[in-house]
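Worked example 3. Consider a protein that binds 5-O-phosphono-beta-D-ribofuranosylamine.
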Amino acid sequence: MTNIGVLISGRGSNFEAIARNVAASVIPARISLVVSNRPDARGLDLARKMGLNARYIPSQGRTREEFEHDLLAALAEKQVDVICLAGFMRVLSADFVRRFPQRILNIHPSLLPAFPGIDAQKQALEYGVKFTGCTVHFVDETVDAGPVILQAVVTIEDGDTVETLSERILREEHRIYTQALRIVLEERYRIEGRRVLISPEKN
Ligand code: GRF
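Given these inputs, the predicted complex is written out as C-alpha coordinates:
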Protein backbone atom coordinates (compact mmCIF):
# COMPACT_ATOMS: atom_id res chain seq x y z
CA MET A 1 0.00 0.00 0.00
CA THR A 2 1.17 3.52 -0.79
CA ASN A 3 2.64 5.52 2.07
CA ILE A 4 1.53 9.13 2.24
CA GLY A 5 3.47 11.88 3.99
CA VAL A 6 1.52 15.03 4.88
CA LEU A 7 3.36 18.32 5.35
CA ILE A 8 1.62 21.02 7.36
CA SER A 9 2.35 24.33 9.08
CA GLY A 10 -0.85 25.16 10.93
CA ARG A 11 -4.47 24.27 11.49
CA GLY A 12 -4.31 21.04 9.52
CA SER A 13 -7.95 20.77 8.44
CA ASN A 14 -6.97 19.40 5.03
CA PHE A 15 -4.72 16.89 6.75
CA GLU A 16 -7.64 15.97 9.02
CA ALA A 17 -9.95 15.40 6.06
CA ILE A 18 -7.33 13.24 4.35
CA ALA A 19 -6.71 11.26 7.56
CA ARG A 20 -10.43 10.58 8.03
CA ASN A 21 -10.77 9.37 4.47
CA VAL A 22 -7.70 7.18 4.82
CA ALA A 23 -9.20 5.69 8.01
CA ALA A 24 -12.48 5.10 6.17
CA SER A 25 -10.60 3.42 3.27
CA VAL A 26 -11.88 6.06 0.87
CA ILE A 27 -8.24 6.88 0.13
CA PRO A 28 -6.33 3.67 -0.65
CA ALA A 29 -3.14 4.44 1.28
CA ARG A 30 -1.78 4.85 4.76
CA ILE A 31 -0.35 7.98 6.34
CA SER A 32 3.13 6.98 7.40
CA LEU A 33 4.32 10.44 8.40
CA VAL A 34 3.02 13.90 9.28
CA VAL A 35 5.57 16.71 9.40
CA SER A 36 5.11 20.24 10.62
CA ASN A 37 7.74 22.94 10.35
CA ARG A 38 6.06 24.74 13.23
CA PRO A 39 5.97 23.30 16.74
CA ASP A 40 2.59 24.84 17.62
CA ALA A 41 0.67 23.59 14.57
CA ARG A 42 -2.80 22.38 15.59
CA GLY A 43 -2.45 19.70 12.92
CA LEU A 44 0.56 18.23 14.72
CA ASP A 45 -1.49 17.74 17.90
CA LEU A 46 -4.31 16.23 15.90
CA ALA A 47 -1.94 13.80 14.18
CA ARG A 48 -0.53 12.70 17.52
CA LYS A 49 -4.01 12.22 18.95
CA MET A 50 -4.83 10.07 15.94
CA GLY A 51 -1.83 7.93 16.80
CA LEU A 52 0.03 8.86 13.64
CA ASN A 53 3.74 9.29 13.32
CA ALA A 54 4.02 13.07 13.67
CA ARG A 55 7.21 15.04 13.65
CA TYR A 56 8.22 18.64 14.11
CA ILE A 57 11.11 19.56 11.84
CA PRO A 58 12.15 23.17 12.47
CA SER A 59 12.68 25.45 9.51
CA GLN A 60 13.01 28.81 11.24
CA GLY A 61 16.56 30.09 11.43
CA ARG A 62 17.86 27.26 9.29
CA THR A 63 18.85 27.11 5.65
CA ARG A 64 16.59 25.38 3.16
CA GLU A 65 19.27 22.72 2.73
CA GLU A 66 19.37 21.96 6.45
CA PHE A 67 15.60 21.75 6.70
CA GLU A 68 15.22 19.62 3.58
CA HIS A 69 18.03 17.33 4.65
CA ASP A 70 16.08 16.41 7.80
CA LEU A 71 12.81 16.24 5.91
CA LEU A 72 14.27 13.87 3.30
CA ALA A 73 15.68 11.65 6.03
CA ALA A 74 12.29 11.42 7.75
CA LEU A 75 10.49 10.71 4.46
CA ALA A 76 12.99 7.99 3.59
CA GLU A 77 12.75 6.43 7.04
CA LYS A 78 8.97 6.22 6.77
CA GLN A 79 9.16 5.14 3.11
CA VAL A 80 6.90 7.90 1.92
CA ASP A 81 5.85 7.55 -1.74
CA VAL A 82 3.41 10.44 -2.12
CA ILE A 83 3.70 13.81 -0.40
CA CYS A 84 0.66 15.98 0.31
CA LEU A 85 1.29 19.62 1.06
CA ALA A 86 -1.59 20.81 3.19
CA GLY A 87 -1.14 24.38 4.32
CA PHE A 88 2.61 23.90 4.31
CA MET A 89 4.14 27.36 4.25
CA ARG A 90 7.65 26.65 2.98
CA VAL A 91 8.69 26.58 -0.66
CA LEU A 92 10.48 23.34 -1.51
CA SER A 93 13.68 23.58 -3.53
CA ALA A 94 13.85 22.45 -7.16
CA ASP A 95 16.27 19.80 -6.04
CA PHE A 96 13.80 18.40 -3.55
CA VAL A 97 10.88 18.49 -5.97
CA ARG A 98 12.85 16.68 -8.67
CA ARG A 99 13.20 13.70 -6.36
CA PHE A 100 9.43 13.16 -6.36
CA PRO A 101 8.17 13.66 -9.93
CA GLN A 102 4.35 13.70 -9.95
CA ARG A 103 4.55 12.56 -6.38
CA ILE A 104 3.93 15.86 -4.58
CA LEU A 105 0.44 17.39 -4.45
CA ASN A 106 -0.59 20.79 -3.16
CA ILE A 107 -3.88 22.51 -2.44
CA HIS A 108 -4.32 26.20 -3.10
CA PRO A 109 -7.40 28.29 -2.19
CA SER A 110 -8.01 29.89 -5.60
CA LEU A 111 -8.59 28.89 -9.18
CA LEU A 112 -4.97 28.89 -10.32
CA PRO A 113 -3.35 30.56 -12.17
CA ALA A 114 -5.41 33.37 -10.59
CA PHE A 115 -4.23 34.58 -7.19
CA PRO A 116 -1.15 32.49 -6.41
CA GLY A 117 0.84 33.10 -3.23
CA ILE A 118 -0.52 34.04 0.18
CA ASP A 119 -3.97 35.41 1.09
CA ALA A 120 -5.53 34.05 -2.09
CA GLN A 121 -9.07 34.49 -0.74
CA LYS A 122 -8.38 38.14 0.14
CA GLN A 123 -6.82 38.70 -3.27
CA ALA A 124 -9.94 37.32 -4.97
CA LEU A 125 -12.28 39.49 -2.88
CA GLU A 126 -10.26 42.62 -3.48
CA TYR A 127 -9.99 41.98 -7.18
CA GLY A 128 -13.74 41.67 -7.35
CA VAL A 129 -14.04 38.37 -9.19
CA LYS A 130 -17.43 36.67 -9.01
CA PHE A 131 -16.09 33.14 -8.81
CA THR A 132 -13.10 31.69 -7.08
CA GLY A 133 -12.43 28.27 -5.60
CA CYS A 134 -9.57 25.90 -5.02
CA THR A 135 -7.03 23.87 -6.97
CA VAL A 136 -5.19 20.63 -6.33
CA HIS A 137 -2.09 20.47 -8.47
CA PHE A 138 1.12 18.58 -8.87
CA VAL A 139 4.10 20.42 -7.44
CA ASP A 140 6.90 21.09 -9.84
CA GLU A 141 9.78 23.52 -9.68
CA THR A 142 7.52 26.55 -10.05
CA VAL A 143 5.49 27.96 -7.15
CA ASP A 144 1.70 27.36 -7.35
CA ALA A 145 2.04 26.46 -11.02
CA GLY A 146 2.33 22.69 -11.53
CA PRO A 147 -0.23 20.76 -13.64
CA VAL A 148 -3.78 21.08 -12.31
CA ILE A 149 -5.41 17.84 -11.16
CA LEU A 150 -8.78 19.15 -9.94
CA GLN A 151 -10.49 22.45 -9.27
CA ALA A 152 -13.75 23.43 -7.61
CA VAL A 153 -15.60 26.68 -8.15
CA VAL A 154 -17.04 28.78 -5.31
CA THR A 155 -19.34 31.73 -6.00
CA ILE A 156 -18.48 34.99 -4.28
CA GLU A 157 -21.52 36.57 -2.60
CA ASP A 158 -21.87 40.32 -2.08
CA GLY A 159 -21.79 39.95 1.70
CA ASP A 160 -18.68 37.77 1.77
CA THR A 161 -15.77 38.53 4.07
CA VAL A 162 -12.40 36.78 3.88
CA GLU A 163 -13.65 34.51 6.67
CA THR A 164 -16.97 33.47 5.13
CA LEU A 165 -15.42 32.97 1.72
CA SER A 166 -12.48 30.99 3.13
CA GLU A 167 -14.87 28.74 4.99
CA ARG A 168 -16.83 27.85 1.83
CA ILE A 169 -13.63 27.31 -0.13
CA LEU A 170 -12.27 25.09 2.64
CA ARG A 171 -15.25 22.75 2.38
CA GLU A 172 -14.44 22.29 -1.30
CA GLU A 173 -10.74 21.86 -0.52
CA HIS A 174 -11.47 18.94 1.77
CA ARG A 175 -13.61 17.32 -0.90
CA ILE A 176 -11.31 17.70 -3.90
CA TYR A 177 -8.05 16.86 -2.09
CA THR A 178 -9.41 13.41 -1.34
CA GLN A 179 -10.73 13.03 -4.87
CA ALA A 180 -7.39 14.10 -6.37
CA LEU A 181 -5.47 11.73 -4.14
CA ARG A 182 -7.65 8.85 -5.24
CA ILE A 183 -6.99 9.71 -8.89
CA VAL A 184 -3.24 9.82 -8.33
CA LEU A 185 -3.05 6.71 -6.15
CA GLU A 186 -5.19 4.72 -8.54
CA GLU A 187 -3.09 6.04 -11.45
CA ARG A 188 -6.23 7.18 -13.25
CA TYR A 189 -4.57 10.02 -15.11
CA ARG A 190 -2.12 10.88 -17.80
CA ILE A 191 -0.38 14.14 -18.48
CA GLU A 192 -0.38 15.77 -21.91
CA GLY A 193 1.61 18.97 -21.86
CA ARG A 194 0.19 20.75 -18.84
CA ARG A 195 -3.13 18.92 -18.95
CA VAL A 196 -3.93 16.20 -16.46
CA LEU A 197 -6.43 13.94 -18.23
CA ILE A 198 -8.44 11.80 -15.86
CA SER A 199 -10.09 8.48 -16.60
CA PRO A 200 -13.26 7.34 -14.85
CA GLU A 201 -13.24 5.16 -11.76
CA LYS A 202 -13.19 1.42 -12.30
CA ASN A 203 -16.01 -0.38 -10.51
C1 GRF B 1 -5.83 26.05 3.00
O1 GRF B 1 -6.67 27.10 2.63
C2 GRF B 1 -4.94 25.64 1.85
O2 GRF B 1 -5.55 25.74 0.60
C3 GRF B 1 -3.80 26.63 1.95
O3 GRF B 1 -3.59 26.78 3.34
C4 GRF B 1 -4.79 26.49 4.04
C5 GRF B 1 -4.47 25.40 5.01
O4 GRF B 1 -5.54 25.08 5.84
N1 GRF B 1 -2.65 26.16 1.21
P1 GRF B 1 -5.46 23.79 6.76
O5 GRF B 1 -4.17 23.89 7.56
O6 GRF B 1 -5.48 22.57 5.89
O7 GRF B 1 -6.66 23.85 7.65
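Take a moment to read the result before moving on. Residues 8, 10-15, 43, 86-87, 107-109, 170, 173 surround 5-O-phosphono-beta-D-ribofuranosylamine (CB under 6 Å). The chain has two domains: 1-100, 107-203.
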